[in-house]
Structure formats: structure tokens, C-alpha cells
Amino acid sequence: MFLITKNKCNIVIYLIALNIILVLLLSSCLDSSSTLTPLAPVIPLELSIEEYELAQQPETDTGFFKPITETAGEILAQHESERGQVIAGLRLVYLENGQKIQAEMTPQPIQSTGSSNDGQVINIKITQNGQSIFTKQSPVLTNDSFHGLWSFGNHWFAEIENLNEGSFRSHTKGEIFRDGQSLNGLNDYTESFGFQILHGKPFYFFEKFGRVGISYNSQDISLGYDRVLHYGCCSMGILNPKMYENMVGFFAVRGDKWYYVEIGVFQ
Questions:
Q1: pTM, whole model, 2 decimals?
Q2: Residue 16's pLDDT is what?
Q3: Band of pLDDT at residue 262, cut at 50, 70 and 90
């Protein structure tokens, strides 16, 4: 299900336009005997995406946002019943077959070289029934660079925040692993972040070709955002995505416009 809010959000128009552009581009490369496959992102029927254009950037100290229509309070009240406890990754999970997956973090000091990147790194080790199955180093950050473990059936997921050297947009970037394999590498993502189990199915954000979209139950959906706020620390942390059992709320940018967005399976 795809919902259009009272402020007449343009996300549906964007998706239709994206499909037309991609079809035209591909058709120019195909001969008359070729078969053209529709490219429009298909939104799962159970999933609702509600986008609200904002009059200005949300406030970093309070999280206050001002929609161009309605009020923040009216918007938040619509799914108030879904806003229970904020969920987060764990350090210990069990797979459906009973296997125990556990994460261990050990700080490791590194020798100073005078570089601005000097400091500590965290050795992350993930074990299955006590046997090591995954290791990775991650920088020590103001926030925890290991964002947790999740299980889905007999698969496990982990999210790790890495340094993003040379980027003018963000000094860190996320990487989600499924059974030890990087989703960034498997799917040509620049970044993947914000993993959660939403209404019993895997959900996360990804950046690809300079645009941010979502993945729900292994289906990638391009939403065309230039940026989704995440991994903010200190006062900026209040603008990070808020994850609940059946929904997620977040702030995003497309072009010169700010949005507050809620995605979920709403009753």
C-alpha cells in the first residue's frame, strides 16, 4: 500500500518519472527485437510510505520539525499506537535452528603516527556456538560503531559503522552484513544502514548511484533521496531514524527540500 498524505507529496510522481526516464534510456540502447522490462519500483502492498514536506530543516537540539501543512503533533498522532519502545540491535541472538550468535568487542590501541586518524580501533568478533565465524575492525567513535546483531530465520545480520575517508558528505558510512557477507559488496551499495526487523521482515536503508532508498524483505525500493539523516551524535542524534516494531520515522533531503517520512505496516 502506498499512501499520499494531505500535503500532496510528490514521491509517487517521482517514481513514475524515474521509470519513464529509465525506460527511455534503455530503449535507446535496444533494437526492435529486444524485450523491455518495466523498471518502476514495486511497493509491497503491506508497506505504507508517508512523506511530509517540511518548511525548513528540523532542529538538531529538540527534533522539532515544521511541515508545510498540518502540524508535527498531528502527524505524529496518526500512528501514536505504533510508537512503543524504540528497538535496537543486540549482542546475542538465536537463529531459528537454535544456533547462538554472539558479538564480542575488544578495544585495541594503535601506535601514533601523527595522523588525524590515530586512535583506537575495536576488534569485532562474531561467534556461532562459541566458534569464531566473523571478524572485523572498526574505529572507536563517539557513538558505538557496532550497531548490533539481528536474526531472521536461520540468517544473522550485523551493522557496523566505518570511517568514510575522503567523503565531503559524511565522515562515516554504514555496512550491513548478512551471514558475514557485506551487502554493500553484494549489491553495489555505497552504504547500507539502519537495519531492523520491521513487521517480522528485514528492513534497511541503502545508498546507490548517489540516491538513498530502502530494502524491505530483500526487495530494493528507490526513493530518490539525496540523504537520510543517520549516525548523528550528540545533539544531532535526535534526528536519527526512530525504529519501532512495525515502523520507522526519519528525516530526508531531496534536492533543496526537507521531508519527514514514516514507513511501516500500519493496522
A1: 0.82
A2: 45
A3: very high
